[in-house]
Known about the structure:
MFS, 2 domains, mainly alpha, MFS_dom
Amino acid sequence: MTADTTPPAAPSAMQADTAPAFAAALPWVGLVGLLFFINYGSRAMLAPLLLSIEADLGLDHAQATRLLFLMACGFTVSLAASAFLLSRVTPRRMAAFSCMATGAVLMGMAAVRDHATARYMFVLMGLAAGLYFPAGMATLGTLARQRDWGKAVSIHELGPNLSFVAVPLLAEAGLRVTDWRGVLLAVGVAGMLTGIVFAWVGRGGRTSAEPPSIRGFTGVLRSPLTWLFAWLLAMGVAGEYAVFSVLPLHLVDGMGLEPSTANGLLAASRVITPFAALAGGWVADRMGARRTIAACLALTGTALLAMAVPSAAVVTAGMTVQGAMTAFIFPAIFKELARCWPAGYQPTVLCIATPASSLLGTGAAPALLGLVGQTWSFGAGFALLGLLALASIIPLRLLPPEPGR
Length: 405
């Protein structure tokens, strides 16, 4: 018997709108967003502390950066397993556990004294943090009505976007009064307390997902929509991570700017991202998620092409637009996912699409930009990524038509 590759029908409007009005749900949506901030910020905090960790443990650059790779491996494995775990544990409990476990691992990291132990702790960090995202999204989906889903996701997406601004500042401030161990200990305690508070007073996410049967899992795996969402998420992650990582090299080596000037421009170009994440949800609810995704891809592609122009002013404008569109597109993508797949299947879709997008966005995309940068120029790499963004508009026709549009 062949598996059905058509996704199950999404819940009806009546079923999807049993949640309270958005104003009433906002405090609880915000609490889930705080969990995401702690989850993402806990992982992001390790990057600005890596030089201090490297010096204290006597590591070289390759060994230090390999720790981040090990964390990514643990994160991917945990994401892939989450759909199966969510059939036995409610999303609310898993989200709270992930936050508490992440905090506990950070507290354990503060006691690390050698490279071998650090490797195990970084893997554990990835495993603990990877449990959050599908559980958090499933919890969020029970708090907001379908018509308000874009706004709810935009509040949730403030977590990583605020982390881009807050984490480097918090790390620098922490290192002024203590060492990296003290910073990780403080962040770990904050994570533990946040998880406990959410487990105590948080709402939503009280229903376990359907167990992923072979037929259901195969159907999700073979559906073109699953891989379309994986690709769209990969484009967003590539813009969020790969472009951000390579831009300092491009500005210094390619544009001839001073490192301090390059870092200042990069930071300034990302200040707008939290506001863009908020606006993205409201626009997706008003204009429609599919149209919003198409517009974001068009503007992202244009901005990346502009970043290949050898002009500091043009590159700066392109950086700003590209950063804003990266934050803007995620609420629309998740709104479409919620429209195309019923809540019981969404964790399965996420456990397939999210690891795939992570490998593409944080692995393949930086490698591609580095290879093109070494062979030709980083500007050529940005132009290639821009063309991929523009080409990604074409498969959007696979998405089912939005009602009333």
